[in-house]
Write a structure and sequence with these properties.
Blueprint: H1 3-23, H2 26-30, E1 33-41, H3 51-63, E2 72-83, E3 86-96, E4 103-114, E5 117-127
Parallel strand pairs: 1-5
Antiparallel strand pairs: 2-3, 3-4, 4-5
GO molecular function, one term: isomerase activity
Keywords: Isomerase
InterPro entries: DUF4440, NTF2-like_dom_sf
Amino acid sequence: MSETTDAEAISAGIDDMYDAFLSGDRARFDAHLHAEVTVWETHLPGPLRTRAELDAYREERDSSGARPVLDGLSARDRRIDVWGDTGVARYVLVAEPPGAPAEHSRVTDVLRRTGDGWLIVHHHSELLGP
């Protein structure tokens, strides 16, 4: 596959992942994550080092009714590079809560090509100030 086609596939996967989040389709969202994904986000309780740790965090959050509700979630200002079976996507994630100002986060996703397509092996998101 060409680098351009790989970058387009990664970009489409990011869009699908955030569409899945908005529709509450966790299985579809998770289909974009490697089992050993590390997740570092400003709002998380420290780095989560596997999907199992991420799942435990989400179960606790969701059971307490704290799952975010958003009107929109989109990746903007993307830069995606591919080197063989490794890709890096950098973008600004715009989260639009109902009735509140949009929040912007700077995101870096590291991806690996697998038999199931491009999977995120590391996700780092930092909330930007106003």
